[in-house]
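User: Hey, quick favor. My workstation is busy. Could you predict this chain's structure for me?
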Amino acid sequence: MKPLPPIAIIGAGWAGLACAVQLAQRGHSVQVFEAARTPGGRARTVQLHLPDGNPVDVDNGQHILIGAYRDSLALMQQVGVDVQQALLRTAMDLRTPDGHGLCLPHWPRPWNALPQQAHVLAGLLGCRGWTLGDKLALLRASLRWQWMGFTCPPTQTVAELCCDLPAAVQSSLIEPLCVSALNTPMVQASASVFLRVLQDALFGGRGGADLLLPRVPLGQLLAEPACHWLQTQGHHVYLGQRIGSLRMADGDAGWQLLQPSGQPIAPPDGHDYWPHVALATSAANSAAMLAACAQAATKTIANTLHAWQQQAAALQYLPIATVYTWSAHSHLPRPMVALPALQAVPTDSAGTVPAQFVFDRGQLGGPAGLLAWVVSACGPDAAATEALVLQQASTLLGHQPQVLQTIVEKRATFACTPALKRPSSRIAPGLWAVGDYVEGPYPATLEGAVRCGFELANSL
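Assistant: No problem, here it is.
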């Protein structure tokens, strides 16, 4: 049997590793090149220090998963992660500290076998802080969306989709769901993508809406076990190895990987070039690499690279901030708490917004008193974000904790706006892009990244 061609994957984020593991299982020789010393991309482990000087591993941004992330869960199990231990599974709970908001029931057997729609209905009817009219309005909207097949005009925003819903429902359910899933305010967010997320999570199979809260740092959740799995299977993962540029071989026979010095990186024995290369870096990094590559390419290939580059460069990005605070007296009623809407702490003229969720890391395997405040679509001023979070913390906790570190991912996700044209996975012959930003039905989520990696592996 003829051996399958080797594949180079540039980037060790969730999308690249998902693709690498699937290709390795199919018999390809895989080599992964990651510029950073730590794998995981935007879902990686970082270290900070508590006030007593003790180090603690946290995440570069607090993430949650949901039960509908079936490909992510399958990949974790495939590389040896015990998902029961690594993730705390709870029913969807978007309640604020006073208990208002949506919380799906956690029924014992045999009631837990009822369809997901029954859980959602019970959660709606039992929602505190809503009037009966609020609940009936959301129920009517949900039935209408189901009747529509969870589709809508591609140009519609979430705000337009939900304009008939009561203000209480919009502020305590739709807006938090939209911002957490799409990292885009509802006035700008794509309604069609939002409906797809609702369909898979709230109205999919049983457990699809469950929250999966990491008990371990993100690096241990997938990236590090995946790298270890690849290496034990005889493949190579190079950390701290930056690829300077790409060059297409004469006659379109494959690709050369060049170090920043210009020195080629030799493919496995028996090959002069890499038949397939997957760019698993960010859209911006991939576009920059292609711009340099196009300068030495033939006119036809250069035009193809420029077209993809322009589409990738047109994506707009929204940041996410995670503010880590500590106090010996900090404790939440639940591991994750939704924070009240913006009436109490209004958005300022500079675009600074308060945190939408706060996580008690002490209830998730971390040190007691460590909280993670997540600010999606945050403003540009980190100091202003910190100040607003401390104001929220004082109101919620009754005291002001100490800020340990604020981590801002400036390009955390692309703005998931209506009718957005995302670049395709195929760039040129033998050259592919893999990431949560490529063309697909999902927003920039961990599951979206993993599914993209799976789809590329299947297509090859």
